[in-house]
């Protein structure tokens, strides 16, 4: 783990939800070995049912990375993932699915997992997933800088839902408000992280807040539906598929 990335991460919270207790012990041990080797302080929490995990999440327990078994006995991992993204509206938890099968790719698409691990998982699987989750965590906590009403302002990228242009103004829709500033969408696009994609001449979205996507539309956080214009449809579809399983910046 490089020094810059290690320096940005303080306490890191990892959750494991699997009804196989041996698997939980195995992954916990691998995480602890990673923690010692890289000198990163990691707190591990374990659940054996999706219901217990979800109940704690509703109480605002903080998790940065969740290793989530798909084949949980009652409420399965796919259902829990949808609850995290749609009911709790939490795009910040990095979810890495673990399974004994490899046939879930399409079902997981809307949940935006960062990884899909096949049992038995290896120490290298766990290390790679932690590294990727920490990289995303650090990227999402970086700040977008802009000027509005004569002031230099900054906001974390993760709080931005989408941008849209109106004449010579750019409107930034965040989790809490709409902010307008002078600018152009085409100039804005070149400075944004990889999880921001342009879907229309006048719209850029943050995929972290995208709940659903069809060929023609995206549904964003808050059930906002935006049109994907014809010239962008193939590019948007490819970008989303690449980001679903890729490890791109």
Q: Supply the number of helical segments.
A: 8
Main beta sheet, described? 5 strands, parallel
Q: What order do the helices and strands follow?
A: HEHEHEHEHEHEEEEEHEEEEEH
Question: Residue share in helices?
Answer: 25-40%
Global mean pLDDT = 88
Strand order of the largest sheet: 2-1-3-4-5
- Give the uncertain stretches in residue-range form: 1-8, 245-249
- E-strand count: 15
Q: What structural category characterises the helix and strand content?
A: alpha/beta
Intertermini distance: 16 Å
For the CA atoms, what is the radius of gyration? Answer: 19 Å
Question: What's the shape?
Answer: globular
What proportion of the residues form beta strands (DSSP E)? 25-35%
Structural notes for this entry:
The chain has 249 residues and is an alpha/beta fold. Helix content is 34%, strand content 31%. The protein has helices at 3-8, 21-38, 50-58, 77-87, 105-108, 123-140, 185-189, 233-245, and strands at 12-17, 42-47, 65-69, 94-99, 115-118, 143-148, 151-156, 160-166, 169-174, 178-182, 196-200, 203-206, 210-213, 217-220, 224-227. The protein has a five-stranded parallel sheet with strand order 2-1-3-4-5. A five-stranded antiparallel sheet has the order 10-9-8-12-11. A three-stranded antiparallel sheet has the order 13-14-15, with no helix packed on it. Helix 3 (50-58) packs parallel to helix 4 (77-87). The radius of gyration is 19 Å and the shape is globular. The protein starts with a helix and ends with a helix. The relative contact order is 0.10.
């Amino acid at each position: 783990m490089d020094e810059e990335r290690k320096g940005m991460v303080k306490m890191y919270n990892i959750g494991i939800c699997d009804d196989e207790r041996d698997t939980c012990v195995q992954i916990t041990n691998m995480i602890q070995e990673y923690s010692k080797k890289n000198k990163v302080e990691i707190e591990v929490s374990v659940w054996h049912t999706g219901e217990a995990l979800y109940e704690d999440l509703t109480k605002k327990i903080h998790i940065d990375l969740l290793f989530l078994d798909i084949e949980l006995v009652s409420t399965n991992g796919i259902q829990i993932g949808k609850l995290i993204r749609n009911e709790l509206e939490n795009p910040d938890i990095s979810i890495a699915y673990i399974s004994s099968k490899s046939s879930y790719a399409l079902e997981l698409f809307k949940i935006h997992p960062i990884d899909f691990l096949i049992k038995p998982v290896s120490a290298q699987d766990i290390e790679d997933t932690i590294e990727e989750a920490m990289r995303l965590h650090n990227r999402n906590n970086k700040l977008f800088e802009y000027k509005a009403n004569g002031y230099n302002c900054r906001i974390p990228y993760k709080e931005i839902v989408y941008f849209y242009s109106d004449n010579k103004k750019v409107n930034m829709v965040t989790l809490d408000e709409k902010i307008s500033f002078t600018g152009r969408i085409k100039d804005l696009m070149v400075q944004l992280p990889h999880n921001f994609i342009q879907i229309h001449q006048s719209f850029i979205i943050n995929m972290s807040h995208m709940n659903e996507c069809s060929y023609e539309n995206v549904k964003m956080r808050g059930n906002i539906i935006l049109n994907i214009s014809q010239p962008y449809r193939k590019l948007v579809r490819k970008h989303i598929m690449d980001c679903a399983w890729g490890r791109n910046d």
